[in-house]
Amino acid sequence: MKNRIITISREFGSGGRTIGKEVAKKLGISCYDEELIKKISEKSGFAKDYIEEQGEYTPGRNWFESLLLENDFYGHFNQSVLWNVQKNTILDIAKKESCVIVGRCADYILKDVANCLTVFIHASMENRMERIVKIYGEYEDASPKKRLMDKDKKCKTYYQFYTDTEWGAAKNYHIALDSGVLGIEKCVEIIAGLY
Amino acid sequence: MKNRIITISREFGSGGRTIGKEVAKKLGISCYDEELIKKISEKSGFAKDYIEEQGEYTPGRNWFESLLLENDFYGHFNQSVLWNVQKNTILDIAKKESCVIVGRCADYILKDVANCLTVFIHASMENRMERIVKIYGEYEDASPKKRLMDKDKKCKTYYQFYTDTEWGAAKNYHIALDSGVLGIEKCVEIIAGLY
Asked: Is A7 left (phi over 0), alpha (psi -120 to 50) or beta?
């Protein structure tokens, strides 16, 4: 595969999406984030909100655990379908063009088939709390910290279930950056400079 | 503390030492690596080889474990003395001048007292094997892979024992780089550019 892909894995609230968009803009290539969700929605029939949440943040379970712990056969079935559609959509995109792909285990899916630069963006709890309140506002039923801890836990479990590797271990990425300390702009500059 | 410090944690064989030296050269500041070992040797009376190995690669044990598992009271005692001398030497250096410090948990020791850029350098097993054979040659009694796995394990245990945080987790560093994929020169350029 001759296309060059930048995959951006990120902690919720770290600005990874913004960094992905800015890098793509700087390099004149597409950024697949919302666009990817749209494609997956078209292919699978699932609603965008469902994909947004279930396609990255659902604790993976095998069918036995789903039945035993959640008594949720359809949940498990949907999740497997969604994973396969996501996987094939990402593989199709990578075949078609050089681009930035945000989230959805793209780093793992493209590991052995594409020319990838794999990036992980993270930031401190304080920085992320500040960011999500600014972007999404306050929630009545959960503090920003609770929301982040919940997302982190689900994201980690999902990634580990589907990739069998550790989410957030430096070794799994070519470059990992603290966007809170380095700043969004500097992260964009470094990543684009590596392309 | 007004001095600005770059701490470089690294996997054995990843070229982190070379990167540290080159970054310091580029920025016109000191690099503490062998120089740090020399200082610790002068203060503690321990031989340089002993510090080199025990000051980063000894699985930390509390006194009870040392007695129980290894029946080695002096080993535990030496290790504690060494950790304290290392810690104070690193704190003294950071008070004195802006510099690069390679290894020895400097990132953790300076966490709340200095203006630090914390870096982690890693590379794939293949890249590191190639590098250590080129630099240190082949060993009769252990394959390059065995040597690296042994160092990784000890280093991880040592770090976790003394810092109570996870070695190699992206979150613990401002920037983590795969020197095998990005190349030593590019790593130097990025780190020096962040200073």
From this structure: beta
Q: How many residues does chain B have?
A: 195
Provide the shortest C-alpha distance from residue B34 to chain A (in Å): 26
- Contact assignment for A176 to B194 by CB distance below 8 Å: no
Test mutation, B127, B178, B182, chain A, max A CBs within 10 A: B178
Residue keyed to tokens 């109570």 = B164
Query: Which of these ranges, A1-5, A28-32, B4-8, has the smallest mean pLDDT?
Result: A1-5
- The pLDDT tens digits of the residues spanning A28-80 come to 999 998 888 888 888 878 888 877 777 666 655 555 665 565 555 556 667 77
Q: Please tell me the distance from the alpha carbon of residue A176 to that of residue B40, in angstroms, as a whole number.
A: 32
Q: What's the DSSP call for residue A169?
A: B
Pick the residue of A7, A149, A172, A175 with the most B CBs within 10 A to test the interface with B by mutation: A175
- Distance CA(A123)–CA(A152), nearest Å, equals 12
Residue in the block written with tokens 């082949």: B138
Q: Inform me whether the pLDDT recorded for A174 exceeds 70.
A: yes
